[in-house]
Amino acid sequence: MKSLNTVLSQGMNQKKKHEVEILSAVVSSVANTVGAATIVDVGAGQGYLAQVLSFQYLHSVIAIDACSHHGKVTDARAERIKKHYESQMRNLGNMNSNAPKTITCRVMSMDSLKALTNTLVPENNDEQSRMMAHDCEKVDERQVQSLCPPNIGSSLVLAGLHACGDLSVTILKAFSECREVKAVVSIGCCYNLLSEGSENSGDHCGFPMSCGVKTVSLLLGKSSRDLACQSADRWRNLSKDAGLHNFELHAFRAAFEMVLSKHYPEVMITSPSIGRQGKALRRQQQRRILESQLRQKESTYSHSNVVEHYSVVGHGESGTSDISGLVSNMDNLSIKSEGDLSVDKCSLFEKFSLSGLCRLGLHPLVDINFRGIWKEVEPYAELVGVYWSLRAALGPLLETFILLDRLLFLQEQVNKLEVVMLPIFDPALSPRNVAIIARKVDATMQP
Fold first, then answer.
1. Which residues are in the Methyltransferase domain (predicted)?
2. Residue 37 lies in a domain
């Protein structure tokens, strides 16, 4: 594994840097083992993984994402990185610097990804460094064929870093059916977005994948798939205040469901999702409280009575513990006072609900009594933390079941694949840390 320099890691938070640093080494090793000419980063986002594989490990890389904005960001960022490396390489006399190529398209099915991978193996062509961005609602073989980077070789490795929902499943299915794809490295995410079907659903569902699990006829349901996204490591590292704030948001979400159930029953039938709504609201509130506390402390410290008191009693150095005690008491008074004045749960819930309705494209009705609904919920709010903690303890079990289904699906391809499932990230930094790594047994080009 190679450490990322400041140029490659620019813009990455600690979690993303940790993930990209490790996964790029794993993918590079797999690509070298099977002798793959090109790595395809599916669901590439802003291209962090693709750029490290391209610039640091010197692979030919194609980054695919459904968002055209991500493609533009990837291209712009890669161009800046390329200029940095070219300036270094001029000094070394080496000009071999290729940025990853980008394609914007919606890979919504295994057939579309198969079509794309098939067209990524064109006839020989001389131009190596062309970058591209292309928008298409549906993969069109002729369009992609005309845009794909020339001479990328006849073998591919598919990589997916936290490809959401069914996209991780699509990657694994395309790997098993496309002869051009020699290996895959997949780390799933967002199990709540998985489609789910029965034994007769064929290949059109994200869970279950394997024949073994399909014959059991065990369906998880949305609630269980939501739980599969929970991680004990994530909760374990929260401070007390952060944990309480998280549980408060869960209470808000539960109360918001009551708003929808009472005033928008037709929307409730569709199992609406408002995403991570409320966390920005909470951060803004915490920032206001912190700023108010700092202002109050500064005002208190500048008050002459405090200075006069300690100069009169003449504690000197021995009075340090007393001063600490005073500061501690001031903190408590500040928090209590600020809490009484600013933390109006009814107002916060109303803001949360209005934001949630906006996210769902709904107009607030004039007769919604947000404060009344919160007052009805508030006596039970303290139970949310206990209930959620017990419920979330089942998360790792459900995630393991989903991942084992994917592993079994690949293992059912008898005598065709070698597959392992390994935790490669620190779960405290990246809870979705299990990689499924597989290669076709006839794809090994090196011992």
1. 15-196
2. yes
Domain residues for the domain of 357 are 239-315+322-392
On the question of pLDDT at 304 being above 70, the answer is: no
Average pLDDT over residues 414-436: 90
Question: Residues 311, 424: one domain?
Answer: no
Q: List strands edge to edge, sheet with 181-189.
A: 101-104, 60-65, 38-42, 156-164, 181-189, 434-440, 417-423
State the burial class of residue 85 (Cβ atoms within 10 Å of its Cβ: 0-12, 13-18, 19+).
buried
The Cα–Cα gap between 437 and 421 comes to: 6
Report the predicted TM-score, pTM, of the whole model to 2 decimal places.
0.71
398 belongs to a structural domain: no
Phi and psi angles of residue 158, each rounded to the nearest 5 degrees, phi first: -95, 135
Q: Is residue 332 part of a domain?
A: yes
146 and 171 Cβ atoms separated by less than 8 Å:
no
223 assigned to some structural domain: no
Tokens of 413: 């391809």
Total domains in the fold of the chain? 2
pLDDT at 441: 84
Extended beta strands in 14-94, E state: 38-42, 60-65
Q: What is the pLDDT of residue 428?
A: 86
Together in a domain, 25 and 161: yes
| pLDDT: which is higher, 76 or 351 | 351
